[in-house]
Amino acid sequence: MKFVIPVLFCLFFNLLSLANKPKIDSLKTKLSYTKVDTTRISILNQIATEFINVSYDSILPYSQKAFNLSSKIGFLKGKGIALKNKSIYYFYAGNQAESINKIEKAIQLFEEIEDNLELAKAYQNYGVLSKDQGDSKKALEKFRLSITYYQKANNQQGVIENLINSGNVYQGLGDFDQALEAFAKAKKFNIKLNNLDSRARIFSGEGLMAEKKGDFDEAIQKLTESLSLFKQLKNEKLICGMYNNLANISRKQGKYLESITYFENALTSAEKMNNPRLQGIILNNLANTYLNINDDDKAASLYKRAVSIIKDIDKITYASLLINLSLIQTKQKKYEVALKSLDSSLNIFRELGSKSYIVNNLFNIAHNHFKLNNLPKAKAFYVESRSIAEELEDQYSSLFIYNGLGEVYLKENKLDSAYYFASKAFTISKEIKALPEESTAAKLLYNISKSDGKAQDALEYLEVHDKLKDSLFNDEKSKALGILEAELGFKSLKEQLELEKLNQQLENEVKVNQRETLILVLAFAFLALIIVVVLLLKIKKNKTKANDLLSQKNNEIELKNLKLKESNLQKNKLFSIISHDLRSPVNSLSQIFDMYAAQQISDEEFKDWLPEINKNISSTRLLIDNLLNWASETLNKAQVEKSTFLLKPEVNSLYDLFYSPLKDKNIQFENNITEDFKIYIDINTLKLVVRNLISNAIKFCNAEDKISISATHFEKYDRICVQDTGVGMTSEVAKHLFSNSSITSSLGTKKEKGKGVGTVLCKTFIEENGGSIWVDFSEEGKGTRICFEVPNQPKEQ
Q1: Environment class of residue 753 by beta-carbon count within 10 Å: exposed (0-12), middle (13-18) or buried (19+)?
Q2: How much is the pTM?
Q3: How does DSSP assign 133-165, residue by residue?
């Protein structure tokens, strides 16, 4: 069973990404200035996805960052997408068990949040991973689940993709009727969408199916159409795949020159993408072709090159390469070296549980021990190989093993056992029409019969062997002529390419000389032009300097007018607040005290009024503080005096201010700031901002809600967040809350009136401390989180 192992490309959706470096750079730039955590997670996951076909090593760090940040804020969708990307990383890294583990965890999260679209994508990836591990049944099950969820999400393109995936699995299993049915459904759905990528993949699947049926003409037609569409889409990875598949067909047809040309094109595409996994696969297939034309040295060098590239990336391909390399080593009678290669590949196949590969591996180990005349070891490996092959019902592999066992027993002079296995090999080879193996078995039976003194039987087997040998000789002669033609054609092609390259070099030299002359002429002309332009600019500069200064002054005046206008609007609004909202509670208090003094209300009734009086006083005090701070800021009297102090005690001191309203609504208040957390900020600014944020949180909370405050250290700044589980706000309100300096107000859950000054003051004072404030999260019915940041204290030089 000394045959090479080619690797084909079946185009499965969703481990692929049409990535490009400019898009990654754009996403990195966007990430650098984005502060909202959920948006940062989305960008990190997008970058990880884009790296799938650029540099798979970069998938892990970005998906890990997205996972960590998602875990920190409890963002399950972001966490699930990060796990899905990590699964793809481990797939390319060759760690299949970890890849499956990550995708299953992602699916659990998407089920928890009932996200049909992400579930569909995750099951699609799971199907591809299962197919890669050789579990076609599980792959089909996952693709069916993916189709179900895509239908729930009303995503027709996803349905098409998984019908194509299912078709590729069926054609790999040899179930062509099911494959054709799946491709036909995909075609029908794609008529409306007219997606070129889907159409190309359908052609590819049909082409590989035709190849397996032996209809090479149809296979080439379908694959060529697929290649043309992928070139239109500029999908380099799938262009590479089509070249590889066309090359394998040409090799089977004996068109070695054409096969080598296709493989070279595929290798060029893989190198453009800097995709080592693809490079290793194509180098393996290219080496197989050189082995077919008996160029063992070239094949060996390509196998070794492929091994060095793919060793730590794709275990299956790496182990297959070791087997292919061992065939050359055996042919060169380097049996010990071949056994080392085969031992390494066997360990990998045993680890992955790839039984069909294990059979091949064990046979080749036994064959090399036989060549070394180590008959006990040869027999042991043949027997183990036979056991697995019979379990798999693999007749083709079994007849090689039976011939091998027959040779061992013949050499041990155990003629009955030798005859038993040689007869089995001869019978099977006749049944499956494997002429070379039938010839080998007939020759072995001739030698056994001759050794056993059965001259008549020996003569009959010799006649069968000679007859088969003549037939095979004609085939080999035709093949040799084909190989010679290919070698001559390849040599001619190389000479033609070298001549074209030489002509191109001469043309380039002429063009370079012409270009240099033109550059010199243009340089002198450009220098003269620069001198003239400099003189003109100098004259113009003097003229425009005064105009620029005048324009600058006009702009300053216009800006001051705008600020004055805005200040007047705020002043009018504030006077309205002072005249109504400040006068009203004071009048109410005055009336209550007057009535009490005139004994119009009793002591008991007065005591009943005390909580309301306290609430009015607290509200009025907060309003007065805000108004005074605003006035101070407006008159430019506010002084920012930053210092470093412990944050938690300051927040605790503010809690006492809000004890009554918190108790009134039965709101739970949590101070989650650590005892040793220090912040660098003006202390009055901190109190003003936190006081207003807590006041607003109480205002928009219902009974039994919760308010929490937290603080986080970063490398260059500190972040404080106030979060509540109240009524939340619309995205439009959240977007504009801190985006301008206009005064707006809304009623609270108990019709509490706001004055609108606090929001403006928070923004103004935080910015004066060099920081920023924003709505980090808000959703109606779920609550709000508002955060502000200020820089860390500068380190002393």
Answers
A1: middle
A2: 0.47
A3: TT-HHHHHHHHHHHHHHHHHTT-HHHHHHHHHH
